[in-house]
Amino acid sequence: MVAGVRERQPRALARAISVVEDGAPEVRALMQAVAADAGHAHVIGLTGSPGVGKSTTTSALITHYRSQDLSVAVLACDPTSPFSGGAILGDRVRMQEHFLDPGVYIRSMASRGHLGGLSATTTQAARLLDAAGFDIILIETVGVGQSEVEVAAAADTTVVLLAPGMGDGIQATKAGILEVGDIFVVNKADRDGAHETVRELRHSLSLAADVRAHPADPDEWTQPILLTVASTGQGIAELAEALTSHRTWLTTTEPGQARASLRAAAELEAVVLATLRARAHAVRDDARFAALAAQVAAGSRDAYTAAEVLLSERD
What we know:
Low-confidence stretches: 82-88, 112-118
Number of domains: 2
Shape: globular
Strand order of the largest sheet: 3-2-4-1-5-6-7
Number of helices: 14
Strand content: 5-15%
Number of strands: 7
Mean pLDDT: 83
Helix content: 40-55%
CATH topology of the largest domain: Rossmann fold
Radius of gyration: 22 Å
Oligomer: single chain
CATH architecture of the largest domain: 3-Layer(aba) Sandwich
């Protein structure tokens, strides 16, 4: 499987990502084997409310990067099907023109109820694609709105998309998306209100800068606001240029380099929490769990003491 991943074989990639998603026993050995091969791709996250054109923008970026002979992988995080538990493949429909391109790999991942707009295993799937040698990895979030800030920990560069007439400028301020966005894109700029949305965003960004508790670092990244019409490709070249500028900032400045450590810390925390969550589920299968739960319900024992009993016995 590892050899297939390194050779960028679609079947091997699909199988490896499934291993990660399912938490199969071999996942630890798999990730250990590919660890040294990762760290070269530019991982780009795209987030925003439903209807702003995330999938269309993703498709337009694929076209742009392929014209430069760069290989592209896409992780499209879709809502979970209530019937099969798999991903509802809405995003892939808008990228079907790229399916037969050997330089493009597209994988839908079900959120499986995980909050934050991503699947819980998105970061590890991106590492596999990085190890496979893809130049660009695009991560597209579910599109559920204000909670989609987790992508900032999974991507090198986070693009927040908005659209005129949807109140997104105000929503961004409420949601804290101002903090996670590295680049802001007002898509569907051929509609009325696009420049008004840009003004709202610029005002919100200036307010955020004013309330900083410390002086701005001269090397700090300045978040650009761009106008695009992804359906026609307008503004996509400028977006790609801004993405390249941000990657340069990441590798050449102290604040940018610090971002890598923060991302690694977030990834490590996610793996620790996933491991603890699995152990917590195992505790429910403990023979004494039901008895202790009954004692808590009856008031003869508090939940903290009951938990200590379970954990101490398992240790």
